[in-house]
Specification:
Layout: H1 2-38, E1 66-72, H2 77-81, E2 95-101, H3 108-117, H4 125-129, H5 145-152, E3 156-162, H6 164-168, E4 175-179, H7 189-195, H8 198-203, E5 207-214, H9 216-224, H10 230-251, E6 258-263, E7 285-289, E8 314-317, H11 321-329, H12 352-374, H13 394-407, H14 414-437, H15 444-468, H16 473-489, H17 493-497, H18 500-517, H19 524-542, H20 556-561, H21 565-586, H22 592-617, H23 625-632, H24 638-660, H25 665-685, H26 694-707, H27 712-729, H28 753-764, H29 766-782, H30 789-815, H31 822-857
Parallel strand pairs: 1-5, 1-6, 2-8, 3-4, 3-5
Antiparallel strand pairs: 2-7, 6-7
Helix pairs in contact: 1-15, 1-30, 1-31, 9-10, 12-13, 12-14, 13-14, 15-30, 16-30, 18-19, 18-27, 19-26, 21-22, 21-25, 22-24, 24-25, 25-29, 25-31, 26-29, 27-29, 27-30, 29-31, 30-31
GO molecular function: CP2 mannose-ethanolamine phosphotransferase activity
GO biological process, one term: GPI anchor biosynthetic process
Function: Ethanolamine phosphate transferase involved in glycosylphosphatidylinositol-anchor biosynthesis. Transfers ethanolamine phosphate to the GPI second mannose.
């Protein structure tokens, strides 16, 4: 019997290893194949648009010949229009205000694309937005209003501010000074670098387009939300800059025909973030300013009462800017535009012929795109004698109506002309809606191929698990139930948006199950420990309010810690002290005169950096005694302080690796714990100050798990649940807006895609990576002398879950690809699934975890 069992084990493990390896190799293949079908680059019409012979005579004269385009990043509509705003510019009657709808994804790069081309950008631009070195998404060869202004050859193009413009428009600007958008702890210098150029440029007359992109308001939102005490000050600063520019337009002769446009690229939610589709994120302000607008502007209620949906005054699409600027500045509508001319400006042209020219040109340009997209006829005879409503498709109905509108365009009766104008405006909006809804084409074959590869990975992981996994039936059933319920949940948008609740309740139920499992040895110590664990879990769940519906709602950080910064710092310093004591315990064999100063110096450097960083990042948290501590640590720059911490961590890590190489036995186990505590210090460095005390709670949970006699299935289940739970507890979600970039540049003085990418990942997955390290400490204790059987069981179960969850996400995205929330909910979820599968699973759990397990357990 024993021989037979050993035979199956010896024969099964190598086969299981092969199957497991192939399953993990297929995960990135499935992700890549599916992504190429789900996030294709959109085709575009090359070349610059020109006025054609269809129009009735020459184009109408443009009222403006020069443009100042001022973008204030994350300028939500209420920041400008509502009561309590720091902006007062529209109160003087020289402005025409709108709320511009910014479609998801509400991040800078795709929004600039929409503003300048009038088109609907790809959701893939969310990824490209994070890579400042990327040039594959350039608009240099596309028709934009910048290209049209350059083609006019009436002046130079200049740009100051967010260097995303320089990436999108290489070799376009004659003068430029770009600033990085990812140094989000800077509220002041990033804007001063823009403002310092304004006065000199306004005195010069050699330009026709000036782009200004301010970032400080967005940074304030990311740091402390839209209700930050810094927000009114920044709004007043931006209002002052608008007034400075407007005064120059009034007084400088060469600026008399200048149009000033103030807008936000997107808004922000109640937590100060953006990227998703909440009302605050999709409602930036849009204001046109010029003395000439006084003749056509209407009386306004200023300031406007606050409204929950952030819809102030007239609402337009952000893409409507392109055709509107074309008419106001005298150039053709860009070829790929889906925007509609804003009819409020028709009053600039009292002649009916001019108004007909503008609207007909805009409608023909959109009709040409629609005809190419749907393969419908451009010839009016194709619809002769046919009633438009009787045609089979919406596109054909719109084409028929367009030919009818063009045919009857000439009116002498003002009332008929007004009706025609209204009908064309309605047609433009309907055509815009149809084209925007089909703006993303899917390669269904690639979607099915990616899903098929994921299914093969699931089957291989399942086969491998059947071969090697051994454990109690209740634990296996619980693991299977978690995987199945999680997969089914991916088909419901509300569950995807509020995924954290699934993990919170599943982790809590799992801990109760483990408590019940250990109930046979109830002791006072065990009871107190269990109580501490359950309380810790409840605190973890309530630490940060996340998700979509309740982001920004009250939580432990907002209610207890932020109003009491001294209590917060007591917890922070207690966490650092815990790490310092743990490091001292693991570094034995050194003279205390050497060991203690080195460990204290490393921890003190980490505390010094966090104090200085928080003082820049959230100065309202550095008060009282903490401010006095900060004065004691004044001196080096943040970059130098961070580098000191990283160098110290690297040096101690080399010592730990030295312990792992020849010694074995207790040395290897001690070295593994040393690496765990060193990573904890790194995780604290890469986490927001308010999240640092969470690691105290995580340590309580870890100690509890170590006190139990867990089998491998229970260790793996605990690891999986706590990795996801801790991710959401730290403030993560399935929305792009929750990506934390505040620590992405620690120790870096300039952009480096590899370093920034790694630091961004550690910042956002600091807690899940911590649990990977903690899991290895549990697994090493379970090693029974086999050829990696413990680790193989662990990875087989994790791979099965990752492959299964990825397969369900792909199935949901494929089945719901025409769903209303495909770009706002399911597409971001797929991006997060990519990060979990490639980053956390393959790189951390399989790669780093496997290396640590092998090194730490060799001596057992």
């Amino acid at each position: 019997m024993v021989d037979s069992k050993m035979q199956r084990r010896n024969n099964g493990v190598p086969a299981a290893t092969v199957l497991l390896s192939i399953a993990n190799l297929l995960i990135p293949a499935a992700i890549l194949i599916f992504a190429t079908g789900f996030f294709p680059y959109k085709p575009f019409l090359p070349g610059l648009a020109q006025y054609d012979g269809l129009q009735h005579g020459p184009p109408p004269a443009a009222p403006f010949d020069r443009l100042v385009f001022m973008v204030v990043d994350a300028l939500r509509s209420d920041f400008v229009f509502a009561e309590g705003s720091g902006f007062e510019l529209i109160r003087d009657g020289f402005a025409m205000p709108f709320t511009a709808h910014a479609a998801s994804p509400t991040v800078t790069m795709p929004r600039i694309k929409a503003i300048t081309t009038g088109s609907v950008p790809s959701f893939l631009d969310v990824i490209l937005n994070l890579d400042e070195a990327d040039t594959s998404s350039t608009l240099a060869s596309q028709d934009t209003w910048l290209a049209q202004m350059k083609a006019k050859q009436t002046g130079k193009l200049i740009m100051y501010g967010d260097d995303t413009w320089l990436k999108l428009f290489p070799d376009t600007f004659d003068r430029a000074d770009g600033t990085s958008s990812f140094f989000v702890s800077d509220f002041t210098e990033v804007d001063n670098n823009v403002t310092r150029h304004i006065d000199d440029e306004l005195r010069q007359s050699d330009w026709n387009t000036m782009i200004l992109h301010y970032l400080g308001l967005d940074h304030i939102g990311h740091k402390s939300g839209p209700r930050s005490s810094n927000m009114p000050l920044k709004q007043r600063e931006m209002d002052g800059i608008v007034r400075r520019i407007y005064k120059a337009i009034e007084t400088e002769p060469h600026l008399q025909s200048t149009l000033l446009v103030l807008c936000g690229d997107h808004g922000m939610n109640d937590a100060g973030n953006h990227g998703a589709s909440s009302a605050g994120e999709t409602s930036p302000a849009l204001v046109f300013l010029s003395p000439q607008l006084k003749s056509i502007s209407k009386p306004l209620t200023v300031p406007a009462p606050f409204v929950d949906d952030f819809q102030y005054y007239s609402s337009v699409e952000q893409s409507d800017l392109a055709p509107t600027l074309g008419a106001l500045l005298g150039f053709p509508v860009p070829k790929n535009n889906l925007g509609a001319f804003i009819p409020d400006f028709l009053a600039f042209w009292p002649e009916q012929r001019d108004q007909q020219h503008i609207l007909t040109h805009n409608s023909k340009q959109i009709f040409d795109i629609m005809a190419a997209a749907f393969g419908i006829s451009r010839l009016p005879g194709a619809y002769g004698g046919v009633e438009c409503p009787e045609l089979p498709t919406e596109a054909e109905i719109l084409a028929c109506r367009w030919h009818t509108l063009v045919k009857i365009a000439q009116f002498t009766d003002p009332e008929q002309h007004s009706d025609w104008t209204n009908n064309v405006s309605v047609w433009l909006q309907e055509a815009q809606s149809v084209m925007s809804s089909m703006a993303s084409t899917y390669d269904t074959t690639r979607l099915l191929e990616g899903g098929g590869v994921a299914l093969i990975s699931i089957l291989l992981a399942l086969a491998s698990s059947v071969m090697v996994v051994r454990g109690p039936v209740p634990s296996l059933c619980a693991f299977a139930l978690i995987s199945l319920l999680y997969g089914i949940m991916m088909f419901a948008s509300s569950y995807v948006e509020e995924e954290q609740h699934f993990w919170y309740w599943a982790a809590s139920a799992w801990l109760v199950y483990l408590v019940h499992k250990g109930s046979l040895r109830w002791t006072p110590t065990f009871v107190l420990t269990t109580l501490a664990v359950l309380v810790s879990m409840r605190l973890v769940r309530g630490w940060n309010q996340t998700g979509q519906k309740f982001a920004g709602s009250p939580d432990i950080v907002k209610i207890f810690l932020t109003p009491n910064p001294q209590s917060l710092w007591g917890l922070i310093l207690g966490t650092y002290a815990m790490v310092g004591v743990a490091l001292i315990r693991q570094i034995r064999g050194w003279p205390r005169a050497i060991m203690l100063p080195l460990v204290v110096g490393l921890v003190a450097s980490a505390v010094s950096f966090k104090l200085s960083f928080t003082n820049e990042d959230a100065p309202e948290l550095v008060v009282g005694v903490i401010q006095k501590l900060l004065r004691l640590a004044e001196g080096p720059s943040l970059v130098s302080r961070a580098r000191t911490v990283f160098v110290g961590l690297a040096a101690f890590s080399l010592y730990a690796v030295y312990l792992l190489t020849p010694h074995g036995g207790q040395e290897s186990s001690r070295a593994l714990r040393l690496l765990h505590h060193l990573y904890t210090l790194l995780a604290l460095t890469q986490s927001r100050a308010t999240n640092i005390p969470l690691f105290l709670l995580f340590s309580i949970l870890q100690s509890y798990l170590e006190s139990l006699d867990l089998d491998v299935v229970e260790i793996t289940g605990s690891s999986l649940l706590l990795q996801f739970t801790s991710f959401f507890a730290m403030g993560g979600s399935n929305a792009i807006s929750s990506v934390d970039l505040s620590n992405a540049y620690n120790g870096i003085s300039g952009f480096n895609v590899g370093a920034v990418g790694l630091l961004t990942f550690i910042s956002n997955w600091a807690a899940p990576v911590w649990w990977t390290s903690a899991t290895n400490l549990l697994l090493v204790r379970r090693k029974a002398g086999g050829a990696g059987e413990v680790y193989q069981m662990h990875i087989a179960l994790l791979t099965l879950f990752v492959a299964t969850s990825l397969g369900f996400v792909m199935a949901a995205c494929t089945a719901l690809r025409t769903h209303l929330f495909i770009w706002t909910v399911f597409s971001p979820k797929y991006l997060y699934s990519m990060a979990w599968g490639l980053g956390q699973h393959l790189a951390v759990n399989v790669g780093l975890g496997g290396l640590l397990y092998w090194l730490g357990g060799r001596g057992k």
